[in-house]
Amino acid sequence: MFFQHVYEKGLAQASYIIGCQASKTAIVIDPKRDIDTYIDIAAREHLNITYVAETHIHADFLSGAQELVDASGAELLLSDEGGPEWQYQFPHTGLHAGDVFMVGNIKFEVLHTPGHTPEHISFLVTNTPAGDYPIMVFTGDFVFVGDIGRPDLLEKAAGITGTQEVGARDMFASLHQFNALPDYVQVWPGHGAGSACGKALGAVPSSTVGYEKQTNWAMQYDDQDAFVDALLAGQPEPPKYFAMMKQLNKTTRPLATTLTTPKQLTVDEVDRAMSNGMPVIDTRDKTVFGQHHIPGSVNIQDIRSFSTWAGWILDYETPFVIVAAPHRMPEIVKALIRIGLDHIYGYIPDIEDWIKTEKPVASVTEISPHDLNDALGRGRAQVIDVRGSAEYQQGHIANALHIHVGELMDYIHRLPSDKPLVVQCETGDRSAIAYSLLAKHGVQNLLNLSGGIQAWLNKGYDVQNAA
């Protein structure tokens, strides 16, 4: 039996390729959209990808299942559970609870594990040459290491009202099925720490059923109502692009079968693009961006969370321009197409030519914790805390307004205008996004707290909790 865990750090997303060397066949579970990874692994191991499967209709990334089937000729295995409204809308082989299929000598049993979504399934695997007992379970967004899948995304992200409590109660029932598995069975989930598909995901890639029974917070509840309350509390804000992922992963769509680097643009082409309403996403370090940037550009740094923030900020119809070093563009393109942001108009490697042609530039105005404390004492500043709700509740600067950075544009016309606005996050990455968004939309008298609330705390200034 061949097994490889494929982990994409940007979205904290796991996929798997499992193969039978005897038959030279393999299956890929929950593939990402840049499918060259799986094709290369299969070629190296002399395997043919004969099946592609998914655990559910994903919300946090655009699945590569359709691309991989197109490239490999594999059979597509997808859930037909959950009722008519939760069905995939393109040709596939439907799976139901109790179904069994073989990849060579490897047996896959389908478990229906609703809760995160109604159609969610898991795959219980037995390597039959070694014995007739299961060895691993691929749980998708059902059970994570230290956490379980959130049931509120359909309601909060996709706008399907009345689904989160039903999902939570389904999850409670599904966990009884999980708890019935042998303790030694390995657990391989669909996500790790950093994913927005749960609230307390562990950083290690896998676990066992027995370990999760002992340590996973969600396994400690016997009372269903208490479990539902605990599961729904404290979930992070779902990125806005999740609704689009649900839609695109359910239907046919254009396939990304080849990846090409977008064209390098001239200064005049960038200027015209902006005049036509195209956003400019500057991926440089926040400090460099803060010194000089194209007015109206938005700073989303080329770091691990780039995909997520691009999904919060960009829409799926408007082409956009990237500022990034040429050697980083292939990875940036992959990060964007993983969530379906395919409309990259072009890129510029930096803004040196922009400056040389005497185009206008902008900079970020910083404020230190000391100066902010002084301004607040004299009533001459309003802090906008752009972190998540859970972070804000744990401790925030007194009288700070809480608006998640991804939701700023929904509240921009309600922001106070009688005093300077100071945007603040944990260390400065998200406030750089917030500052550039607000500046792009004409907000004046704007400041960024240098170093975020960590710098504020390091200077000995107080915070208060939500109470």
Write a concise keyword list for the protein shown above:
single chain, 467 residues, six-stranded mixed β-sheet
Write the layout of secondary structure elements.
Blueprint: E1 2-8, E2 13-20, E3 25-29, H1 36-44, E4 48-53, H2 65-72, E5 75-79, E6 93-95, E7 100-103, E8 106-112, E9 121-127, E10 136-140, H3 153-156, H4 164-179, E11 186-189, E12 207-208, H5 209-215, H6 224-232, H7 242-250, H8 267-275, E13 280-282, H9 286-291, E14 298-299, H10 306-313, E15 320-323, H11 329-337, E16 344-348, H12 352-356, E17 366-367, H13 369-377, E18 382-385, H14 389-394, E19 401-402, H15 408-411, E20 421-424, H16 429-440, E21 446-449, H17 452-458
Parallel strand pairs: 3-4, 4-5, 5-6, 10-11, 13-14, 13-15, 15-16, 17-21, 18-19, 18-20, 20-21
Antiparallel strand pairs: 1-2, 2-3, 7-8, 8-9, 9-10, 11-12
Helix pairs in contact: 4-6
